[in-house]
Every structure is written in structure tokens, then in C-alpha cells.
Write a structure and sequence with these properties.
469 residues, alpha/beta, single chain, disordered N terminus, 17 strands, globular, nine-stranded mixed beta sheet, 19% strand, 2 domains, Dihydrodipicolinate Reductase, domain 2, six-stranded parallel beta sheet, Rossmann fold
């Protein structure tokens, strides 16, 4: 990115008014609090790509937390941050200070009133706001980068893929490890046939592992909303409930109304390599094998469990056999013998892609950028002299650089919403199985779980009055 454009441009509003100031930050949501929101219903797409000499102008929704991490990742791309939005001024304070020339908002709807002044939107909100913000941006003709999981529900993920295809904007889901050399080489190794036919897959994480609470009931106390937090905007389309510090910041991830638990948080990262390499689609069956606390308990009605084991069956694809995947979280791990002498990695997690001639063992995505042994072929002695196939996938400087380049009319991203929606759907079906307690026979064409009518309520959200996609 050009040195003179790192802090953004201060004159975002196109109507001649000054950029939104810190004084108006907290009041932003009040302008439309009583209005029904129909995202992007009458918006005309903006021009798809910037001129070759111009940086991509980016607006960030959710500038604190993961948004701050994304802002750091964007610094070395050919982009400029022109607007920052966060309904929690406390959480976003450092980001606002780092980009003093960028316009600041507390309500993304108000930021989108000035859509002509940015080209792309990065969405780093809690999961339950991913779809409504991303779809609004795409219908305005904006390129979109959205954090994982792509959506909070199966239906929302499908809608995001549909709108992306219709608008033909550049999209990318925030699976940063997807761009790492280790990931792309692992995909090439599996596709080359080095480990033979794959019919068995194991994926795990240690989460929640103290990162946030799961297996708990709803907190009963109703403290006042802290200054600087617009609770109504934070809730967005989720059912109304009183503010509680148990949700904000970050710890919303275990609550069904806001997050997607361990499988949505780390499953997307840790399954990504195998899902990509094997060309998996939606599963045909999903069934919970273990769950603590018990399915149907008061705790499970409010939050994801402390630990679970879930089995997903994926159908055969062309010449490749069907695949049985077992998911583990909360400290559960695959059988020790599958690691063939390697220490079982419990922290963060990983995957075992079990083939007829060998196994590819990956660590979680965090290691793929720097560790030469981010993936290991097992048994080690069998692959001592193994030479990986020549690169067949494109290489890129970073996940964010890949997206920014696509925004400028370059090559398509490798984790677009078309791909991300199917990966997300597969894992979110695990949450549907946890919430219903039933084995799901999944008809992906009809988006229907045969013989399990109670699943319907968890496939598509009931949006709060005043919010709709």
C-alpha cells in the first residue's frame, strides 16, 4: 500500500458534510433505530474494479477485535482504509486512533449511506451479523472479505453465495491459513495420490478450552449497558435480550444466538485443507456420537456443549470414494494409533487425512506460515525420501493480498463465498445435530433434513423485527 494512504482519507461523506466525528460515533444507530432494514434492496452496483494505479478503498465493519487483526494484515496490500465502523467504541478505540483520517461510525447502515466512497468491505463482526452486513455490501456492488465462519446458519451461507454469484464481486472468507504455503502444498500432495484413496478423516480442536464459556445457562442479571456500546446494533438481527458482559466482547462465541461454538470457530480452519484437497461437498448424514452436557439439557438450549464428537458422512465424488469424517472438540481426540508414533497435538487442533497408502497430518492453521513441518506424512519412515509434486495451485503473498488483488481485477480468490458457503454449511449441520439430538439425513438440494422437522428452525434464522435479508 502507498505510504501516503495508510491512514485513509478524511472526506468520506459525499454530500459535502464533514466526516463522522468521535462525538457522533455513539449516536449513529439512533438515526434508523425505528426503521425496518432491508439490506441493499434498491442499491445500484458501483464499478467493480479500481483503476490499476488506485488503491482499493476499504471500509471495515467490526473494527475492534478480529477487525484490528485484519487491519494489520491489510497494511502491506495496495489498499487504503477510508472508513471504520464498530458499535463498541471501547473495543475499537485502538483502531480508531490508528486511522485518524478514516471516517468513524457506530452503525454500519449509516456507513453504507456513503457507499460511493469505498470499493470493498471487510466484515469482522460476531457471526450472527456476517450475512446481513455482507449481503448488504454485495448488493451495493462492494467486494467483501468476511471472517469465518461465513454465516451463522445454513440458509444465510447459501444466500451469501447466491448474492456473490449474482453481483460478481470479489469475495474471500477469512481462512487465513488457506493462503499459506503449507496448506497449498498439502492440497497438492493429497491430490497427487501420494497417500492413496481417502475414505477416513479426523478433525479436532481443543476449543472452547477456556477461551469462552459453553455448557452454561443464560445469565440472569441485567446490568446497565456500558457507555460506548450500542447494544441494539450489536444485537442486529438476533432475538432481543438484555445486555450482559457474558456476551461482549468475544465471549459471545458459545451462545447459539450469536456464535457457532467450537465447530464454527476452529472447524472452518482445521477442516479447510482436507475439504479443499478432497473436493468435498455437503454431507449426506450428520450424527452426534458424544456430547457433554447432555443434549436437551438446560445448558444445551442456550450454548454449545463443553465437548462433543460428531460424525459426518460425505458422498463419493467422481472417482473418489465416500469419506467418513469424525469431529472432536473440548479436549476429545482421535485414537492414538492413528498418529503412528507422532505426539497427539491437543492444543488448537489439526486433522488426519487417512489414505490407503499413508496419512497426512496437519496442525492447526496458525503454524502453516512458518513451520516447515506444518504437515507430516505418516508413517514418517515410509516418506523419508518423498518429493512433493510441483506446484499446481497459485501462490500468493497473503490471504488479504489475494483478495485485494481480486478487487483490482486480478485473479480470483481461492476461498470465495462459493467455496466457503459449502464448507460452512457442512460444519454448521453439526450444530443442528447437537441442537436436535437427531441423526440428520441431509438433502442438500432441498436444504432439508429428512425425518427431522425440528431441524428446520435451526437451518434458517428468525430475524428480529425490523431486520431482514
Amino acid at each position: 500500500m502507498r505510504e501516503d494512504s495508510k491512514d485513509g482519507a478524511g472526506a468520506l461523506p459525499a454530500d459535502g458534510s464533514p466526516a463522522v466525528s468521535r462525538r457522533t460515533f455513539v449516536a449513529g444507530a439512533a438515526l434508523t433505530a425505528a426503521a425496518t432494514v432491508t439490506v441493499g434492496a434498491e442499491a445500484a452496483p458501483s464499478r467493480r474494479h479500481r483503476a490499476a494505479a488506485d488503491p482499493v478503498r476499504i471500509a471495515v465493519v467490526g473494527a475492534g477485535g478480529r477487525g484490528a487483526d485484519n487491519l494489520r494484515d491489510l497494511r502491506d496490500t495496495d489498499s487504503v482504509i477510508v472508513a471504520l465502523c464498530d458499535c463498541d467504541a471501547r473495543r475499537a478505540a485502538d483502531s480508531f486512533r490508528a486511522y485518524p483520517k478514516a471516517a468513524q461510525f457506530s452503525d454500519w447502515r449509516r456507513m453504507f449511506d456513503h457507499a460511493g466512497d469505498f470499493d470493498a468491505v471487510l466484515v469482522a463482526t460476531p457471526d450472527h451479523n456476517h450475512a446481513i452486513v455482507s449481503i448488504a455490501a454485495m448488493k451495493l456492488g462492494k467486494h467483501v472479505y468476511c471472517e469465518k465462519p461465513l454465516a451463522h446458519s445454513v440458509w444465510e451461507a447459501r444466500q451469501m453465495a447466491k448474492v456473490a454469484a449474482e453481483t460478481r464481486v470479489a469475495t474471500q472468507m477469512g481462512t487465513q491459513g488457506h493462503a499459506f504455503e503449507g496448506t497449498r502444498q498439502a492440497v497438492e500432495v493429497v491430490r497427487s495420490g501420494a497417500i492413496g484413496e481417502v475414505a477416513e478423516l479426523h478433525v479436532w480442536t481443543d476449543r472452547p478450552a477456556g477461551w469462552w464459556a459453553q455448557g452454561i445457562v443464560r445469565p440472569p442479571d441485567t446490568p446497565p449497558v456500558p457507555e460506548g456500546l450500542d447494544w441494539d446494533v450489536w444485537l442486529g438481527p438476533a432475538p432481543r435480550r438484555p445486555y450482559n458482559p457474558a456476551y461482549v466482547p468475544f465471549t459471545w462465541r458459545g451462545f447459539w444466538d450469536f456464535g457457532t461454538g467450537a465447530i464454527g470457530d476452529m472447524g472452518i480452519h482445521n477442516l479447510d485443507t482436507a475439504f479443499w484437497a478432497l473436493g468435498l461437498g455437503a454431507p449426506t448424514t450428520v450424527q452426534v456420537k458424544e456430547c457433554s452436557p447432555a443434549i436437551g439439557s438446560a445448558e444445551m438450549k442456550e450454548t454449545a456443549p463443553l465437548a462433543s464428537v460428531i460424525e459426518l458422512q460425505f458422498p463419493a465424488r467422481q472417482s473418489m470414494p465416500a469419506v467418513k469424517m469424525t469431529w472432536y472438540d473440548g479436549g476429545k481426540l482421535p485414537p492414538e494409533e492413528l498418529f503412528q508414533g507422532e505426539p497427539r497435538i491437543s492444543k488448537d487442533g489439526g486433522s488426519l487425512i487417512v489414505g490407503s497408502r499413508g496419512t497426512l497430518f496437519t496442525r492447526t492453521w496458525h503454524g502453516g506460515e512458518t513451520k516447515s513441518d506444518w504437515f507430516v506424512l505418516l508413517p514418517r519412515k515410509q516418506f523419508l525420501d518423498y518429493v512433493p509434486p510441483p506446484p499446481s495451485l497459485p501462490r500468493t503473498k497473503s490471504h488479504h493480498d489475494e483478495w485485494v488483488d481480486a478487487c483490482r481485477g486480478g485473479a480470483a480468490t481461492q476461498s470465495p463465498f462459493e467455496y466457503a458457503a459449502v464448507l460452512t454449511e457442512s460444519l454448521l449441520l453439526g450444530n443442528v445435530a447437537l441442537r436436535t439430538g437427531a441423526k440428520l439425513d441431509w438433502d442438500a438440494t432441498r436444504m432439508h433434513a429428512s425425518g427431522c422437522p425440528e431441524a428446520d428452525r435451526y437451518l434458517r434464522p428468525q430475524l428480529r423485527k425490523g431486520w431482514r435479508l
